[in-house]
Write a structure and sequence with these properties.
Number of helices: 1
Distance between the termini: 29 Å
Radius of gyration: 22 Å
Strand content: over 45%
Strand order of the largest sheet: 1-2-3-4-5-6-7-8
Largest sheet: 8 strands, antiparallel, barrel
């Protein structure tokens, strides 16, 4: 999938070979909020969790016009610790003893990254300030633990990947002729399912919200 994304970039560039293409690079540092939902179709159990993590990204852009650019970027969304408490009864069925329960905490390190290919539209608000909007395809990947394990913690994960739409809005402030800084909010909505040999199909959703400080350099 990564090779295909890079190939699309390379194939797109010759279309604008006769035009002047300005190149820029950006570093993004911020926080990611992971909203996680999972449902087990086998027994109907559901669970939700929300967790924060540090995020980091690198982006390369090619300005086709003053208002339009083609971009490719790599983002590390960090390890979001999804936590919940499990309560289980220890009472022996049929006994006359009162009910007893035991509780323990489960922590799932949801580690996510993504490779993105998309376009950026830019509108100048003043000589130094511009607003921008981004849309494209994100190839996301879980390092190991899956959101599906929120309702199926006994099943170990081996990672998962897929493609979904991402969107982003933000603004930049021009510090010098080449250097600029900004703020950006981005969203990826992941909806997938995981089939386990002992447990059936688990559907999960991961809404990944990111707020990042952007530092860019125009070549």
């Amino acid at each position: 999938m990564k090779i295909k994304l890079f190939g699309l970039v390379l194939l797109s560039l010759p279309i604008y070979a006769e035009a002047e293409i300005n190149v820029y690079s950006e570093a993004l540092i911020g926080k990611a909020n992971s909203e996680l939902y999972a449902k087990d179709d086998f027994d109907g159990s559901k669970r939700a969790s929300s967790a924060m993590s540090d995020s980091f990204g690198l982006r390369l852009g090619f300005e086709i016009t003053e208002q339009l650019a083609l971009e490719i970027s790599k983002h590390y969304h960090g390890e979001a610790p999804a936590e919940y408490t499990v309560h289980r009864s220890t009472t022996i069925p049929g006994s006359n003893e009162g009910p007893f329960t035991t509780s323990y905490n489960v922590v799932l390190p949801i580690d996510t990254e993504s490779l993105r290919l998309g376009v950026k539209g830019k509108i100048a608000l003043s000589n130094k300030v511009n607003a921008n909007i981004r849309v494209g395809i994100a190839h996301w990947k879980y390092k190991d633990v899956l959101p599906a394990q929120l309702v199926s913690p006994d099943n170990t994960g081996s990672g998962d990947s897929g493609n979904d739409i991402y969107t982003a809005v933000g603004f930049n402030y021009q510090l010098t002729d080449n250097l600029y800084a900004g703020l950006e909010y981005a969203l990826i909505n992941i909806k997938e399912s995981q089939e386990y040999e002992y447990g059936g199909i688990v559907k999960y959703e991961h809404n990944l919200h990111e707020l990042s400080i952007v530092l860019g350099w125009a070549f």
